[in-house]
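Section handout 9: paired folding examples.
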Amino acid sequence: MSRHARAFWLATPGRGEIRPVLLPTPNADEVLVRTCYSGVSRGTETLVFTGGVPSGQHAAMRAPFQEGDFPAPVKYGYLSVGVVEEGPTDLRGRTVFCLHPHQTAYVVPARAVVVVPEQVPAARAVLAGTVETAVNALWDEPPLVGDRVTVVGAGMVGAAVAALLARFPGVRVQLVDVDPTRAALAGALGVGFAPPAAAAAGRDLVVHASATAAGLRRCLELVAPEGTVLELSWYGDREVALPLGAQFHTGRLTLRSSQVGRVAPARRSRRSHADRLTLALELLADPVFDALLTGESRFADLPDLLPRLADRRLPALCHLITYDGE
């Protein structure tokens, strides 16, 4: 295949462009991957696109194969699925997932790719990074049989968490969002739905994924005494004010963060990052996750697409990028 490829770069905050890439010849322990699909994670990637990564978090927010530095120019992204064109015999011709930015082809270490199970469509496999985040969250704070659980924020991560929670025996799940059209998403995932004002209270566990202060405050109101609010949101450089007197203090509530950069402590001694990602791909055999794929565009359209996702002119969960003919 051609040693030339094209990559999407954030040139300056709010402006992206396609740049040429000269690919190296892969070494014996590397693979050359031709991209079939990638996914735009609306929350994190639009934060990066608008230059909202705080200066103190530049190192923590780096993607595995990122080039450049925040705020820009930077090549960023982490939901890529492609076919191995060159590499070890056991990987050649296989469909793989990689935490790689949007690029038509790339060379990475063989250990950086995970084979997509045959029963998982390549397009759905771009959700592996999101489902991996949901897996890590539920390793951090797993529900008990029969728990009443609420997920506040029906974006990519919140929807993925709700989809996994729906599999737990006896767990009753309610998805909460300010957008009433998310009721259809909740139905597709097999969970209940409510707007914030009508959400059920007295919940054993509340998972927050709306990335808003109002959403987190509502979580503290919904959780039962001595219950836990699990915070999955990334706020960038925004400060969040919370009412930590009254109900929070007397109710002995727990507010806990979960972040995918490290394997949850409950499994860290027994599971690697690769194990966690492999599990996420296996879980994607369930077609219910197709509800998270809400749009499709060509790779060449990324410079025009990201501004519309960032300012919400184009509503989306995971927007699929196709590479046919690229």
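Moving on to protein 2 of 2.
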Amino acid sequence: MRERGARDRAGAGRGLIDVLVAGGGPAGLATAIHAALAGMEAVVVEPRTGPVDKACGEGLMPGGVAALAAMGVHPAGRPLRGIHYLDGRHQARAAFGHADGRGVRRTVLHAALARRAAELGVTTVAGRVREVRQDRDGVVAAGLRARWLVAADGLHSPARRSLGLDLPDRGPRRYGLRAHFRLAPWTDFVEVHWSGDGGEAYVTPVADDLVGVAILTSRRRPYPEHLAAFPALLARLAGAGAGDGTAPGMEGGTEPVTVVLGAGPLRRRVRARVAGRILLVGDAAGYTDALTGEGVSLAVRCAEALVGCLRRDRPQDYEHAWRRLSRTHRLLTGALLLAAHRPATARLVVPAAQRMPALFTSVVRALA
């Protein structure tokens, strides 16, 4: 995307920007793209350069693939046909049915979104949104004045915190860790391995010779120790290609080829998604858990709804739109999270899915 110098960043000699976006991750770039497609001027403020990596499962649901395609974004990756639950003794598999999902490296997705934003004339400025002032007609942040500010600044959103929109959460604190292994994918499904100690491992094919393994857990310990709780998966990964010198070796000869990245605590409760002329999108808008793998897909769809509300000059409608779009995700993810937090019920998830394949398929397709 085009970059502006310090004088331009101060906003000298320019008119009012339509949409200023704090954060240049997928949610922020999707918002800027939708704004540009709607004929609005969008400027993204982002401190990081180049494709940005993040600890995530990297599996796009079919709805997310379709939403990206509608924006003109077509990231390279591996087709995903559905979800496969395993716990050692039991397993359940459900296909998406109507269309495939896609396993996409986070850096590849980010680069594809950035290219599309640049094609549409979106400008990016290097910096952070630290202080926001708003009045009846606009918002001032990062030395720029805009009609609207969209905070897409992530799970720990400084903008959300400064607005006092965080709500306390007394639920279990969950964390995510992710690394990649150099071997050919053995499946075109996302595998979800359930362990007996309250954790899950997500295996996502992202290239012809690369799989990502993301672990969700409430226990804070090194990645190799988490992986050891999934012996069948560890056996699959044994002998994976040598690393690039950036990641430590692991027991059984299994070695990641990317640095282990972490995120969390994952759950974020938010009072509201609209505060005057400031709106929240993506993880900044609230987060339940990564159990159902809908983060990027949901962020892209919500970004489109948000821009639609701004075009109609009805920002207050966005709260209802966000709740409607995220309802299925919040209900199903919340139910699974409740089960996963209790070892006695966590052990029943995969056997129940195996005994009720029609219900399991219905849930997967609802999420897809």
